TrEMBL record:
Name under which the protein is recorded: 2-keto-3-deoxygluconate kinase
A GO term for molecular function: kinase activity
Source species: Halobellus limi
Superkingdom to which the source organism belongs: Archaea
Keywords for this protein: Kinase, Transferase
Family note: Belongs to the carbohydrate kinase PfkB family.
Amino acid sequence: MTDIVTFGETMLRLSPPRGERLERTSELGVRTGGAESNVAVAAARLGRDATWISKLPDSALGRRIVSELRSHGVRMDVAWDGSDDARLGTYYLEHGGEPRGTDVIYDRADASVTTATPGELPAGALDDASVFYTSGITPALSQTLGETTEALLRAAQERGTTTAFDLNYRGKLWSPMEAGERYESLFPHVDVLVAAERDAATCLGREGDAVEVANGLLRDFDFETVVLTRGESGSLAVHDGEVYEQDVYDAETFDPIGTGDAFVGGFLAKRLDGGDVSDALAYGAATASLKRTVDGDLAVVTAEEVDAVVERNAGGISR
Ligand SMILES: O=C(O)C(=O)C[C@H](O)[C@H](O)COP(=O)(O)O
């Protein structure tokens, strides 16, 4: 039995040392990042059985991704692209404090994963998975991946697997209108929707009171659960007629990239462990806050650390 299967692109992330500019640096640190594998890593590190499905170039770069994800306990079902022009997507990340901000440059067009079809993906893990997760980044990458995303969500749903989807809007990949239309076409195959409040406003035109936005989405698309992430204002979920709210836990931020994925990984890991929606929100928020203290996209955390954040903030003192 697999607890969670995720599907999407994983890239190499290349960053200059802190304080250096991309246009001047002679050094780039290499890390691994991709929304769906970030979620798989968080879930695996928190004790769940997680499998990531994707397509990778049959090269040292593809093998690098596999060895990094495996080192965190993620299982993989990968279609290998042996063609001469097989590509691994990369992204450049320049960390900048205020007023510069952090900037991302993608170099991911025509990556091997963009041609992945349901027929070639070894998706056997889906047969007995409890949860299938993918995000709005995946269908943004190509027409083929849009179709494959829908086919996998459908297949998971037909097998009785709970499907979870984070909008994860990326304005460098498509317009709000294109994204909104695609999201809505996928919603009939989604049980658990995760949406940043700003993505719901930008792409779906859902603005106003957060509880109303979440309830409106739940009602209009018949989701089982809607989770709205609200940055500094915390998160909330609607499920089974109840509203649950969660504050953010303070964090000294070293690297904010991957916070949203850590939240989703923590949330789903707790639900898979039998936690209720309220426990899962707390667990997601704690995983996200710990991630912010760690360099790289991945939530390199332990279940004990996550429990400690939740307990300390529930009034306990760690002595
Ligand atoms: O594929 C992409 O375009 C990505 O952006 C991959 C990102 O590294 C993560 O998805 C981080 O996203 P957050 O957790 O929201 O910080």
